[in-house]
Amino acid sequence: MNGRPAFFETLRDKAVQRWDQLERDPELAGPWHQLFKQVQSPRHVLSELLQNADDAGATEASVDITDGCFLFSHNGEDFTEEHFASLCRFGYSNKRALHTIGFRGIGFKSTFSLGDTVELDTPSLSIAFDRRRFTEPRWIERRQSVSERTLIRVPIRDELRQREIEKNLQEWLASPVSLLFFKHIRRMRIGSRDVHWRSLGPGPVPATERMALHDSPDAAFLVARSEAEAFPEEALAEIRQERLLSDNQEAGFPPCKIEIVLGAKGRLYVVLPTGVETSLPFACNAPFIQDPARLKIKDPETSPTNRWLLERVGKLAASVMLRWLDCPEASVAERSNAYGLFPDVNRSDNSLEGVCAATIEGSFEKALGEVPFLITSSGELKPSAGCIILPQPLLDIWPADQAARLFDDAGRPPLSSCVTEADQQKLIHWGVVEKIDKPHVLQVLQSTHLPKPETWGHLLKLWAYVAPELTGYRADVDRQRVRIVPAQGKDVLYAACEVIRLGEKRLLQSEEDWEFLAVHLLVLNPNWPRFLAEQRRHAEELNDRSLKGKVAAALAVLRAIEMEGASDVSEVIEQVAGEFFSQQGISIAKCVQLTQIAAKLGATVGDAFRFATRDRHLRKVSSVVLFDRDGTLEAFFEQAWCNAHFLHTDYKTNYASCTHEEWLAWVTSGRAGLLGFAPLVGTKNDIYGRAKIEAELRRRGVSGAPSYSYVTNHFRVEDWDFEEIHWRWWSALAKEDPGIWGRIFDRILGQPEASWVHAKGTRVSQVATTRKTRSISNESLLAEWILRLRELPCLRDTRGFYRKPAELLRRTPETESLMDVEPFIHSLLDNEATRPLLKLLGVREVPTGPDRLLDCLRTLAMSDHPPVHEVEKWYRRLDQLTDACSTTDLADIKAAFRDEKIVLSEGAGWTNAAGVFLSSDEEAMPGTAVVRAGVRDLMLWRKIGIADRPTADLAIQWLLGLPSGEVLSQDDARRVRALLPRHPRRIWSECQHWLNLSGAWMSVDTLSYSLSMQSLVAWKHLNEDIKQRTADLQPLSAEVSAALPFCGLPHLAGRIEERLHSTVRISAGAERWPWLNQLGVELRRIELEDTSEQDRIRKLAADLADTIWQTAPGLEIIPYIDGTPAGMPRRAEAVWLSGVLYVEDRPLSKLARAVAQELGRAFRRQDLADAIKLCFDRPPAFVTEYLEENFKLGPQEVTAVPIAAGQSVRSEPSTQNSDDGPDSPAANRPADDEADQDDGEGTVIHLEEPDNGAESDTEGADIPQDPESSHAPLHRPPLIPKPAKLSIIERFARTKGYQRDGTERFFHADGSWISKAHDARFPWERRTAGGDLVCYYWPKEHCLELQALQIEADIWGLLDHSPDNYSLVLSDAQGEPVEVSGTRLRAMLDGREIKLYPASYRLVIDHDHKQ
User: Fold this and answer.
1) d(CA 389, CA 1334)
2) Contact, 556 vs 562, CB < 8 A?
3) What is the C-alpha to C-alpha distance for residues 720 and 730, in angstroms, rounded to an integer?
4) Which residue, 282, 260, 284, 266, is CA-closest to 207?
5) Where are stretches of biased composition, namely Polar residues (predicted)?
6) Largest CA distance in the chain
7) What is the per-residue pLDDT across 1348-1366, written as a single tens digit (0 to 9) for each?
8) Is the pTM of this model over 0.70?
9) Which of 178, 487, 821, 1221, CA to CA, is 20 to 30 A from 1346?
10) At residue 1059, does pLDDT exceed 70?
11) Would you call the peptide bond into 1129 cis, given omega within 30 degrees of 0 as the criterion?
């Protein structure tokens, strides 16, 4: 059909007229436009169009969005004039069948919600509607060829509307339930996807059908349809009102059907889904009257039509469920699915959804009536409350009927197990069935011996079922009383407390003993744990998770009920004892057998157990039963008491069921309950009178006042003590054996702590008139038995003597310091277990004070050489004591160390706290006395005020404390000599004291002379008054001693005049020695920078040039000061007086050193002393050559050496002395030498003299020295003249890159230097460019690899004490200088590369001690 239908123009004209009328009358047009806006919803477009297509008889439809246009088509009938007229009207419909969405003819108009123009193309029409006049059609050209399908095309206005319609299409794809409610449409295509339902066949009852989507055949839905039923009158009236029909208009509305879909959500449909979604288990479709917005339906409370339809839905659901349950052809499982229709909604929900669901459920309930609808496991139907629901695990364990009888008192059959859990909950919520829950099951299991399941597998299910409640952290049941345990030979289950489990290993070897126990026991069936072990292994092999879980749960239950292992033997014995001792006529032999079995098993006896005593009575352990292990316990008690309380002797006569060792172990463990001594018993004593009770409190150690709560004078003392019969017996024994108290206490300690710990205190209370009591003291009160033992010698000390407790000390950190001083309790009695009891008895835990320890130190301080380990031990004890001592005790300790010399320092003897330090500081105080290294880490020293290290202020403070005018001790003198060169001016000015030659600390006002290294003379032979008045400046450097205030004292050397003793025998034959006179001649030419010094040397040289050599046997000289003898004559090897050099009659090899020293003393220059030593007995030519090479000389003078009458000229020295050979008397004559007397050390190590200016602190090294000193023989040098060899210190300096700068300094390019030091022990020092000390050097031309080296003790002490600051400069095998630091020496000593030996000892008479 290509032309326009005849009715088109007619209907279009009517529409035009209507719109012209509306446009002329805005009030008439207003409702139209308002209603038109209400239907503008994109989500309703597809639903409206599908409804129209279904009304047109379409069987399939399609929808798509292409190029921004919404396209909908179907294969229904073409428009007739009547149908087309409905499109051209608004608010009116020609539909009469109520199986529709609405009645107002506005569904098609919803398409305008997508766009402004809607095109319609059918076989007869090609028209469009515009939004402005949405009912006025206009003819358009066809976009496609004539087709049999109806096509609706709407250009979508914007993206928002397109997204909304696309969302609606996706909802249809997800839930196309509405297709089930159309009359004709069963297939729909949305885009490229087809959606259609297919039938799976009829349902379980008539008028039902199983349906499924074509792509989900397994997800079946059950559709149930009712019979058609006419609307009631009140519904028809509502419908007429909704359709705006008058009573005289046509009202032929046919009967309607309703449908429900089981499996779909509980939404209400009017063919198409509404917005009402309930909690019903099925969807409902009926011709509900919708609200104006067509989102939901009208409230059934105000809509009789909707209420009637909803009630029909409930009746339909009940009818289908009842018929389905009563279908004999179906299985019980299939019939059980009928409960899926059972509603369970919240009837108190007042929302529209809640009201609709409640209306349906109420109708459903009314339809059920009294009809049986509960299906049992056998398929029977029972009425409401006629069934019970049993947990599925119980039905898997026992048959259903048996399980029902076991757990339901009424014996009701169980609901079919095929009913799903969700459906069960609905029935329970309705109250039509009762569920047997797990708490009820556990209650039954605790109260009833249920029959044992048929197989172990069924029992495994039972254990797995109850496992969560029995193994949880907070179990609400008594695990021991749940009867699930299979017993050997029994058909019912028992509780764990009724059954014991025997171990796989038989602990009792005797069958007779096993039979004795088995008579009285219920034993766990051993096959049950074996089955669990097999199932666990089987589950592991098959990796069966379900079985693993069950076995794990069962094993957890086994642990929870404490049957994982063998039962506690104590429970076994207690169970047997309860039955055994309830019998009559029990023999002692059987009692012994049971007791020995208990000992064998190590059981703990309980209240049911009995022991036979010597008087043949059976007694509980609470009745006091003692076991006399070795037969010595009986001596502590009277015989009658022993018979009533000592174990029968048959118990240890024959050990048949256990060994003797097992019996003793059982008894001593305490598990037997047998005592090893009499127990403490509680007593109650009443005391009347407050004075008496206060006296009693003081006796028990209470210091505070009692608190009285009542007015009464009645008091009660609840005490603990041994029975009085025992005290009387023990007192009698003590008269003959005082040691009995110690043995009694040993017995008390031998008991477990629990035997006395509860009885250590006493409670004293006041009794009111109402008999109420209240304690009168909060302090701890001692029990009576403790008070008695306090006064008895019951404790052994470390020497085995018994003492009263208060006389002893416990070994604690506080008392550790008093070990070996105070009496201590024996170590066997002092342990953690006995400590509380010892404290109660009054054994002291803190020391009484430091006096005993200080006395030990005072005693040791009386010895100059005390045992060091013993001294250090007492220091450590004092250190321990100070950790917890009182302030007073610490003050006493400080005072003792301050006032007394009881500190033993490292190598410096005894001193007080002010004279010792924890570490040394050679800069501030050389030779510092330090605390011994072995105890230097003790906190004691800091607590008593000993400083960490010395400072100048501390040194001055110490010097101020020295006694004035008294000779210092060796240690103090050594320290003073070390301090003097460090702080000379401060000491002189602040202390106003100085050390004299006698070693006394003298006021500077008493000093008249000084003795320095630059003006050194022999002085030990001087008179004591001279020594007393001479200041010892030897430790000072030349610069210091030459400056104020020291230069103010005249030099002793300048005041002494040496004279020959009158008894000296002068032998004839004085002679001149060429080398000697030549030396004087050449030195007369010496040139020095200091002209006064030059003149002095030249004058001496002139005297030397005229000096003659005179041999004087027995040479002695006497010192004179101011013409008065100032000392005793002394032997001398060489004396230069008045142009004569007097020498002893000795070989030249022995005189060389003495001559060089005597002449060098006069010249007072080291370089000249070295020259004299080297030129001794040399040819004159060599003397001249040597001096010219090493000294600056003036022009040579031609002079003749005068020879006086009687003088001879000594010939040139030869290589051999014919007069003094090895066998001559002079060579073999013993040296008449005495060892030097050192002022500071009592014992020293002798050393060889260092070369090249190594100075000594005695009376000279290579400068003038005491002639009494012993000297090593000096071998004559070779006669062949050769250039002088550089000193070893200079050679060493050159190897380090230093150049000579004067006679006593070497400088380096980096600014550092090596120069002479003030320290006489290490004469050279090396400093940085900034003046910081690097190292002290002690040079000596000596090869340690070729010959042993002797050094003095103080030199070694410095090397050992400060190895980084002191070094030796020696030569190697090739004569090259090498530095050997103190660090290297110590490493060599530790590595045993060198050994240290004492070289010599010096004996010194202590004149003070002798007096």
Assistant:
1) 102
2) no
3) 17
4) 260
5) 1208-1219
6) 196
7) 888 887 788 888 888 888 9
8) no
9) 1221
10) yes
11) no
